[in-house]
Amino acid sequence: MGPTAVEDHVPGEVTPAEPSPWPRHGPLLLLAAALVPGTLLVVLGRWGDTPAMEAWRTVALSVTVQALPFLLLGTALSGAINAFVPASVFRKALPKRPALAVPVAGVAGVVLPGCECASVPVANSLIGRGVAPAAAFTFLLSAPAVNPIVLTATAVAFPGAPMMVVARLAASLAAAAVMGWLWLRFGREEWLKPAVRHTGHEPGRSRWAEFREGFQHDFLHAGGFLVIGAMAAATFNVTVPRTWVDTFANSPWLSVVFLAALAIVIAVCSEADAFVAASLTGFSPTARLTFMVVGPMVDLKLIALQAGTFGRAFAVRFSAATTVVAVLCAVLIGEALL
């Protein structure tokens, strides 16, 4: 009889057949991810010393440097949650009635940090273990938007504006809960893939190995989007003519729609999007709030992840509805609080 896999790894037990998911060059990759943005900006700076290039370097580098510590902490905590906290904990903590489980799942995102990339497989695992899809999708939307790392980053990005943090928390929770209830009322099981992939802890595998692998993947993946987002924000601030910005910024609705679309396209990690929003000084507080509410819930990488995990039929409908709900919640709460 072959060896039986067990849930708990026995201390000191060696499993040579399983290669380590943390390569020897893993720390070097993490260091490179932290240093490449600054190095790239220095190289680009040598192409010209014009005021526009200097402004571009300043904005891009400041956004990257400010956001990097929050990205590190957020991905580390997300990896720890996924590796050490069983999905059954969430199922046991939620009320049996789906209508009540929706707001509870939304509030759970406040205390359980996770980035957008991590929230999709977590929601998939929750559904596979018996959690109502409406509650799982509410958690999917709320966790990356209202967790402590994101709220702290927002407070740092908007010093002296505590209501921006309150507005982001309220608008994101409201949008997540509304989407959960909408799925409960109108969602159909046939929109989801019939097979739900199990993403929990693999029996016999070290949880620390899972943590290291998840942290490495999430940090390198999200760090790339952070650099792209910082460069996009810098390019926007420097290259877009001021008259164009004024055309959008001076119109309450155009500014909201424009920044919502920008959040979807540039796909900045939620731990870093507040710094990008703070750099868009030509827009109203409500428009920048919309950028921060829409981004963690709907962007190009999330749509792709949802389509691959839950199916294209789900991703198209869910993303479109989430965009509308997130914009409406951001505008209503932004106008009331900001």
Can you put this structure into words, describing what you see?
The model is unreliable at 1-43 and 195-199 (pLDDT under 50). The chain has one domain (48-191, 204-337). The protein contains 15 helices and no strands. Helix 7 packs parallel to helix 12. The protein has helices at 26-45, 51-84, 88-93, 98-111, 116-128, 133-146, 148-157, 162-186, 207-239, 242-249, 252-266, 273-279, 285-294, 300-310, 312-337. With 338 residues, the protein is mainly α. Belongs to the UPF0718 family. This is Permease. InterPro entries: DUF318, UPF0718. Residues 1-20 are annotated as: Disordered. Its main location: membrane.
Mean pLDDT: 76
Count of domain modules? 1
**Alpha-beta content class:** mainly alpha
**Helical content band:** over 70%
Provide the succession of SSEs.
Answer: HHHHHHHHHHHHHHH
Through-space gap between termini: 67 Å
Strand fraction band?
Answer: under 5%
Q: Give the tally of β-strands.
A: 0
Write the layout of secondary structure elements.
Layout lengths: L25 H20 L5 H34 L3 H6 L4 H14 L4 H13 L4 H14 L1 H10 L4 H25 L20 H33 L2 H8 L2 H15 L6 H7 L5 H10 L5 H11 L1 H26 L1
Helix pairs in contact: 1-2, 1-9, 2-7, 2-9, 2-12, 4-6, 4-8, 5-6, 5-14, 6-8, 7-8, 7-12, 8-13, 8-15, 9-12, 11-13, 12-13, 13-15, 14-15
What's the gist of this structure?
The chain has one domain (48-191, 204-337). 73% of the residues lie in helices and 0% in strands.
Observed structural traits:
single chain; disordered N terminus; 338 residues; 73% helix; DUF318; mainly alpha
